[in-house]
Design goal:
By secondary structure, this protein is mostly helical. It contains 10 helices and no strands.
Length: 204
C-alpha cells in the first residue's frame, strides 16, 4: 500500500496495522535524524516516539501522495521535536561531544568531525526546496536506492542522480554558511549515506 493509502486507512478507520506499517517504513529515518540531533540513544528513542505520536494525530491532514512527502514531513517534525527536547533538557552540548567522540568518521579528513557536520545537517536539509529535500531524505536517510526513486517519481535514474548531486552541493554550501567546512560534495554524500545509526531495538 502507498503512504497515502496507509494514512487514509489509519485516519478514517483507526487501522492499527496500517499505522504500524508506516512506523516500520520510517522508524530508521526518524530515529537516525533524532540521534544526529540529540547524540543519546534514550533521547533519540523518546523523540522518535513523540514524532510518531504527532504523525498519528496529524494523519488525516497529510496527503502523502507525492514521492518523499511523508518522509520530508517526518524529517521536519523530528527536527522540531528534537529542538523542543533540547531546550527542555539543556544538555545538547554534552551529548554532541560524547557522540562525536564515540562515533568518528574514518573517511572525514582534516580537523572537522562528523559530529560537527551532523549537528547542522538537518537544519540545512530543511532549507532545501521540496523536491530536493524529498530526494535527500528518501535516498540518504530512508535508504531508498536511486532506481527506486526513479520508479516512484517517473524521473530517469540519470535525472535522479543529477538532482541528488545538486542537493548535496546545496547542503555543502549551506553548511559552509554555518561555518562547517566540508571538503567535497562527494565526501559529504558518502558520509550521509553511512550516517544512519542502527535502529535495532527502537520502539514506538
Amino acid at each position: 500500500m502507498s503512504d497515502h493509502a496507509l494514512l487514509t486507512a489509519y485516519a478514517r478507520r483507526g487501522d492499527a496495522q496500517a499505522f504500524a506499517q508506516l512506523v516500520r517504513g520510517y522508524q530508521d529515518l526518524v530515529y537516525g535524524t533524532a540521534m544526529r540531533r540529540l547524540r543519546h540513544a534514550d533521547d533519540a528513542r523518546e523523540a522518535t516516539q513523540q514524532t510518531f505520536i504527532k504523525l498519528a494525530r496529524a494523519a488525516g491532514t497529510i496527503q502523502g501522495t507525492s514521492p518523499g512527502e511523508l518522509g520530508a514531513w517526518l524529517h521536519r517534525t523530528t527536527v522540531n521535536t528534537c529542538r523542543d527536547l533540547v531546550r527542555a533538557a539543556g544538555r545538547r552540548r554534552t551529548h554532541e561531544s560524547a557522540y562525536a567522540q564515540a562515533r568518528p568518521t574514518a573517511d572525514w579528513p582534516g580537523d572537522v568531525s562528523w559530529g560537527e557536520v551532523s549537528a547542522a545537517l538537518d537544519e540545512a536539509i530543511a532549507e532545501l526546496d521540496d523536491e530536493r529535500r524529498g530526494l535527500v531524505v528518501e535516498h540518504f536517510l530512508a535508504g531508498r536506492s536511486q532506481r527506486e526513486l526513479a520508479g516512484a517519481t517517473g524521473l530517469s535514474p540519470a535525472t535522479v542522480s543529477r538532482r541528488l548531486a545538486s542537493a548535496v552541493e546545496a547542503l555543502r554550501e549551506a553548511l559552509g554558511r554555518r561555518g562547517v567546512v566540508t571538503p567535497t560534495a562527494g565526501v559529504l554524500g558518502t558520509a550521509m549515506a553511512g550516517a544512519l545509526p542502527a535502529a535495532a531495538g527502537t520502539t514506538c
